[in-house]
Amino acid sequence: MKFSAQEEYGLRCLIEIARSGDSLTIPQIAEREHLSEPHVAKLLTILRKAGFIRSTRGHTGGYRLSSPPEQIAVGRVLEALGGRLYEEGFCERHSGLTPTCAHGSSCAVQFLWDDIQRAVDLVVNRVTLADLLARTPAPAKLVRVRAKFNRQDRERISV
């Protein structure tokens, strides 16, 4: 069982927007998450269409949350970004050589997938974006220091 890169990166972008408390642009998010701008744009389009963020155009524009982080369940975000682990109609799409599954309603594997989906739903639907923010410290800010040296100091350190 795997979660996709799209779910991982999309959730990270959403956390970054929530952490900022303000609007962020695609280049800002891309730089902070070390992702390409086109990839961030794609993820933000999905998140915007699903209603988690809203965008504002213009010089002071960017992306911001459309609801408080306490109201955004991680399960809904993951579902928007990649779907569920076990989708309705899975068995019909994987019936083998016949149009319907050979096992019908007595399929032991289907019961396993249902149980796994319920367990995952229990976790991801009770965790909110605010919970994730509370669990992760803000990333350290890089500080650029420009030292002022006189001519003698510059000559000593330029070897």
Please render the helix and strand layout as text.
Blueprint: H1 5-20, H2 26-33, H3 37-49, E1 53-56, E2 62-65, H4 74-82, H5 90-93, H6 108-124, H7 129-135, H8 151-157
Antiparallel strand pairs: 1-2
Describe this structure in words.
This protein is mainly α. The protein has one domain (5-151): Orthogonal Bundle (Arc Repressor Mutant, subunit A), CATH 1.10.10.10. It is 51% helix and 5% strand. It is built from eight helices and two strands; from the N terminus they run αααββααααα. It has helices at residues 5-20, 26-33, 37-49, 74-82, 90-93, 108-124, 129-135, 151-157; strands at residues 53-56, 62-65. Strands 1-2 form a two-stranded antiparallel ribbon. Strand 1 and strand 2 form a beta hairpin. Helix 1 packs across helix 4 (74-82). The chain is elongated. The relative contact order is 0.14. The model has no long low-confidence stretch (mean pLDDT 83).
